[in-house]
Amino acid sequence: MSGVRQQYVARDEDGMRLDRWFQTHFPQVTFGHLQKLLRSGQIRVDSGRVQSSTRLVTGQLVRIPPLDAAPPRDPEAINSRDADALREVILYEDDELYVFNKPHGLASQGGSGVKRSVDSMLKSLLNKKGESPRLVHRLDRDTSGCLVVAKTKASAAHFGDMFSSHQTRKIYWAVVFGNPQPKQGSISCFLAKQPMGEGEQMMVVPHGTPGAVHSKSYYSTTDTAARRFAWVTLKPVTGRTHQLRVHMAQLNNPIMGDPRYFNIANYTVPDEISKGLHLHARRIALPLRSGHILDISAPLPPHMQATFDVLGFDADRFDVQDIDPEE
């Protein structure tokens, strides 16, 4: 391509994220190069500036700049090793989707400093049309558990709608510092990205702060280890960046192993607590296109299972609680 072109968003692409749209049409463009084009305003939708997370609408016009300078993809990104690694963590599969048990420490999507992600590995699982599966939601790099991936454009649009309209039920498990008081309840506050050191992180801010978004989660104490630690079940109502991590820190019960939001001053983590973020996307329930409800659970990652064993938490005895407060 040598010049600027315009392309309409197709009907079956309605609701697709811009980064996923570009990956489908222009697979040679890396995530980092796409970010540079967006920051410089070279990519626009209906003449307006957009972000990689912008959801497209059928009929919108996407401005596509010359892409000849896009750096080539690493040929090692597509290989049988990635396919084998993904197949090992499949919790559920049908003609429309995968549900993976995403390992702790593996990013969902590429970004600054990310060399390998679920998104890049999906190129190794092409369908019969040569299309790669598509992420329809994300987990933090250090959060393990249920991750939904669509196999087709149509199913990506469907499941994207299910997540954006809050028709999915997501349940997380966490090990936190101390015992929450009260034992169950909700956290509701406004969050915004704020500068922190050389980067940014989510902070609780007053309503009306520029860039602030509302967030809400339910929590319930499932078991405790004396007054030192608790196993909590978490249900996010909204889906903000780092939401559960910020909410538990707001309760003064930060999640163990959280490098960003653990806010207990001068605290030394006991040796018996495994290293790593103790937050796991345990269970997800979502409507399939057939109308049936898929309800799937993911076993704990090794570091959390080791902590459970030390603290006497029995995942088989105290599974997901259905008596938590609901809206």
Structural descriptors:
alpha+beta, Structural Genomics Hypothetical 15.5 Kd Protein In mrcA-pckA Intergenic Region, Chain A, Pseudouridine synthase, 15 strands, 4-stranded antiparallel sheet, 327 residues, 11-stranded mixed sheet, 29% strand
State the CATH topology of the largest domain: Pseudouridine synthase
Alpha carbon gyration radius: 21 Å
Share of helical residues: 10-25%
CATH architecture of the largest domain: 2-Layer Sandwich
Our estimate of the beta-strand percent is: 25-35%
SS element count, helices: 7
The CATH class of the largest domain: Alpha Beta
The tally of structural domains comes to 3
Helix- and strand-based class? alpha+beta
Average pLDDT taken over every residue: 88
Tally the beta strands.
15
As residue ranges, the low-confidence spans are 69-73
Order of helices and strands: EHHEEEHEEHEEHEEEEEHEEH
**N/C terminus separation:** 52 Å
Find the CATH superfamily of the largest domain. Answer: Pseudouridine synthase
What does the main sheet amount to? 11 strands, mixed
Shape summary: globular
Describe this structure in words.
- The chain is of the alpha+beta class and 327 residues long.
- The protein folds into 3 domains: 5-64, RNA-binding S4 domain (Structural Genomics Hypothetical 15.5 Kd Protein In mrcA-pckA Intergenic Region, Chain A); 75-165, Pseudouridine synthase, CATH 3.30.2350.10; 170-311, Pseudouridine synthase, CATH 3.30.2350.10.
- The protein has helices spanning 18-25, 31-39, 80-88, 118-121, 153-164, 243-250, 302-311; strands spanning 5-8, 44-45, 48-49, 61-64, 90-93, 97-102, 134-135, 144-150, 169-177, 184-196, 199-205, 213-225, 229-236, 279-287, 293-297.
- The longest helix has 12 residues, at 153-164.
- It is globular, with a radius of gyration of 21 Å.
